[in-house]
C-alpha cells in the first residue's frame, strides 16, 4: 500500500518544497523503516528539490503475520479468506496506524525546527495507490469534496478481460488542496477506515477519543458527519451515541442515527466487535472505582497494579482527572497497557496527563507521594499474606493518598460458582480470598492504624445469602 504526499515550493516567499521534510520529521536524503502492525513501513523521497518534493509512505504487510495476529481480519466469506484478501494492498486502518506511528509529529501538529509551518497552508497532493470504497466513486466525492479537495479518481475493473463483470470497489485516488499538512493527515487518518469499513484491531471506547481528537475542527461541520462517526466506530451503537453526544453537545443524537447517509454498493456482511455486550463483573469494578474517585473530587490519581490499562482507559476519558499514573510490577503488562492506550498516538495534552511506570507495592517509592487518590482493583489477593504489612505501609503510611479505593473478591460468594470446589480460589495466582467479615476486619485495622476512615460497598449483583461477588473499601484520610 503506497501513499505519496507532494508539495511545490514558493520561491517568492522563500519557501522551498523540501520544507516538507521538516514537517514530517523525515530527512529527504534517507530511507527510513519502521515496525508496524503485521509488517513494516518505509519512508523515502522519490523527488526532493526546491521546486517539488514528494514523500512516499510504503506499507509492506506480511500476509502470514496478518493470519497469525489474534486481532487481525477474521472474515467468514470463504474458507481461505484469512490467506486471500486485500489487506496488504488497500488503504485501511493499517494506514491510519502507520500515519500515527511514522508521522506522529506531523499528525499531532509538532515541528521543532519550523514551528511556523505547522499551521501554514501548503499546496498539497496526496495519492493513494488503492482505496476500497464500498459506496463507489460517489462515496469518495461525498467524503472529500466537502473538505475542499479536488479529486482524480481512477476505477479498477474486477477483471479487464471480462468487462461484463463490472467495476470493483477499488480506486486509485489523488487529492489536491491547499491546507496544513496536519489537517490533511487527520482527514486521511479518519476517513481511510470509514471507506474500507474494516479495522485490524478491537474497537473500544478509546476509539471515540481518537475520532474526536483527529476530527477536531472539521468533523462536526462535515455534511456526512453522522455516517463518518458510525462507520469509524464500526456501527457500534453505544460508542456512536457517545461520540455524537460529545460532538453535537445539545443536538439530538437519536435523530443522527436514523440511517446511513451514503449509499452502499452492495449488502456486505463484515466482521465487527460484538455490540452492546453485558457489563462484565470486572467492568463493574472499574466503573465503581472511577465513580468513587469522582465523588471524592480526586484530580491526581494512581492506578496501582494497573495491569493492561483497562482502568487507565476510563480515567483518561474523564476530564476531572488531570494527572494519571499507572504502576505495575510487570514490564510486559505495562507494554500491553501502552498498546491498549495507543500511547504513541495520544495528543500532546493527553500524553502529559498519563504516565506509566514499573514498581512494586511492597517497597517504599517516593514517586507515589503527593497524589490525592489511588485505585487498587483486584490486586491485594495476588500478594503473599506475609507481604500485606509492607503493602499497607507503602500505600497508607508513605504514599498516603487522600482517597484509596480498593477491591478484592468476596470469598463468601465462591459457593455460587459451580466450577469451584471447596477451599479453591477463583484464580490460580490468588494467594488468599477474604470473606466479608475478614475484609471488614482488615479494612478497619488499616483505617485505625493509619488514621483513615473506611466504608465498604458490594460490587456486582448482591445475593441475599452470600453478598456480591466482589467487595470494595473506600479509605479517606480522617
Automatic annotation (TrEMBL):
Gene3D superfamilies tied to this protein: Hen1, N-terminal domain, Vaccinia Virus protein VP39
EC number: 2.1.1.386
Domain Hen1 N-terminal per the UniProt entry, residue ranges: 1-247
This protein's record includes keyword Kinase: no
Enzymatic reactions: small RNA 3'-end nucleotide + S-adenosyl-L-methionine = small RNA 3'-end 2'-O-methylnucleotide + S-adenosyl-L-homocysteine + H(+)
SUPFAM superfamilies membership: S-adenosyl-L-methionine-dependent methyltransferases (SSF53335)
Keywords carried by this UniProt record: Magnesium, Metal-binding, Methyltransferase, RNA-binding, RNA-mediated gene silencing, S-adenosyl-L-methionine, Transferase
Pfam family, one: Methyltransf_23
UniProt-recorded Gene Ontology molecular function terms: metal ion binding; RNA binding; small RNA 2'-O-methyltransferase activity
Record InterPro entries: 3'-RNA_MeTfrase_Hen1_bac, Hen1, Hen1_N, Hen1_N_sf, SAM-dependent_MTases_sf
Top-level division of the source organism's lineage: Bacteria
Necessary cofactors: Mg(2+)
Any one GO biological process: regulatory ncRNA-mediated gene silencing
Assigned protein family: Belongs to the methyltransferase superfamily. HEN1 family.
NCBIfam families referenced in this protein's UniProt entry, alphabetically: bacter_Hen1
Protein name as it appears in the record: Small RNA 2'-O-methyltransferase
Species of the source: Catalinimonas alkaloidigena
Amino acid at each position: 500500500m503506497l501513499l505519496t504526499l507532494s508539495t511545490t515550493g514558493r520561491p517568492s516567499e522563500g519557501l522551498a518544497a523540501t520544507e516538507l521534510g521538516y514537517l514530517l520529521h523525515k530527512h529527504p536524503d534517507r530511507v527510513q523503516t519502521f515496525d508496524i502492525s503485521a509488517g513494516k513501513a518505509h519512508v523515502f523521497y522519490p523527488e526532493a528539490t526546491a521546486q517539488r518534493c514528494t514523500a512516499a509512505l510504503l506499507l509492506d504487510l506480511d500476509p502470514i503475520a496478518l493470519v497469525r495476529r489474534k486481532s487481525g481480519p477474521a472474515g467468514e466469506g470463504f474458507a481461505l479468506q484469512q490467506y486471500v484478501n486485500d489487506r496488504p494492498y488497500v488503504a485501511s486502518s493499517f494506514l491510519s496506524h502507520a500515519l500515527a506511528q511514522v508521522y506522529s509529529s506531523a499528525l499531532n501538529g509538532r515541528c521543532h525546527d519550523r514551528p511556523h509551518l505547522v499551521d501554514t497552508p501548503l499546496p498539497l497532493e496526496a495519492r493513494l495507490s488503492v482505496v476500497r470504497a464500498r459506496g463507489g466513486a460517489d462515496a469518495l466525492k461525498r467524503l472529500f469534496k466537502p473538505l475542499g479537495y479536488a479529486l482524480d479518481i481512477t476505477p479498477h475493473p474486477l477483471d479487464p478481460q471480462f468487462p461484463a463483470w463490472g467495476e470493483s470497489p477499488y480506486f486509485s485516488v489523488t487529492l489536491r488542496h491547499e491546507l496544513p499538512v496536519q489537517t490533511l493527515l487527520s482527514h486521511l487518518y479518519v476517513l481511510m477506515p470509514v471507506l474500507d469499513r474494516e479495522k485490524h484491531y478491537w474497537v473500544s471506547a478509546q476509539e471515540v477519543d481518537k475520532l474526536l481528537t483527529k476530527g477536531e475542527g472539521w468533523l462536526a461541520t462535515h455534511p456526512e458527519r453522522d455516517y463518518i462517526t458510525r462507520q469509524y466506530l464500526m456501527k457500534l451503537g453505544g460508542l456512536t451515541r457517545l461520540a455524537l453526544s460529545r460532538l453535537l453537545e445539545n443536538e439530538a443524537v437519536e435523530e443522527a442515527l436514523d440511517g446511513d447517509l451514503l449509499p452502499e454498493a452492495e449488502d456486505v456482511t463484515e466482521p465487527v466487535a460484538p455490540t452492546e455486550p453485558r457489563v462484565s463483573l470486572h467492568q463493574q469494578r472499574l466503573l465503581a472505582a472511577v465513580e468513587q474517585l469522582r465523588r471524592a473530587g480526586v484530580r491526581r490519581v494512581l492506578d496501582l497494579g494497573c495491569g493492561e490499562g483497562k482502568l487507565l482507559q476510563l480515567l483518561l476519558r474523564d476530564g476531572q482527572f488531570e494527572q494519571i499514573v499507572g504502576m505495575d510490577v510487570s514490564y510486559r503488562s505495562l507494554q500491553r497497557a501502552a498498546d491498549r492506550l495507543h500511547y504513541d498516538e495520544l495528543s500532546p495534552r493527553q500524553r502529559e496527563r498519563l504516565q506509566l511506570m514499573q514498581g512494586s507495592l511492597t517497597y517504599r517509592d517516593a514517586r507515589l507521594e503527593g497524589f490525592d487518590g489511588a485505585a487498587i482493583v483486584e490486586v491485594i489477593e495476588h500478594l503473599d499474606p506475609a507481604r500485606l504489612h509492607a503493602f499497607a505501609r507503602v500505600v497508607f503510611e508513605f504514599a498516603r493518598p487522600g482517597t484509596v479505593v480498593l477491591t478484592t473478591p468476596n470469598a463468601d460468594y465462591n459457593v455460587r460458582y459451580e466450577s469451584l470446589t471447596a477451599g479453591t480460589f477463583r484464580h490460580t495466582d490468588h494467594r488468599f480470598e477474604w470473606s466479608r467479615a475478614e475484609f471488614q476486619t482488615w479494612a478497619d485495622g488499616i483505617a485505625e492504624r493509619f488514621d483513615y476512615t473506611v466504608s465498604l460497598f458490594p460490587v456486582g449483583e448482591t445475593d441475599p445469602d452470600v453478598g456480591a461477588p466482589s467487595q470494595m473499601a473506600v479509605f479517606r484520610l480522617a
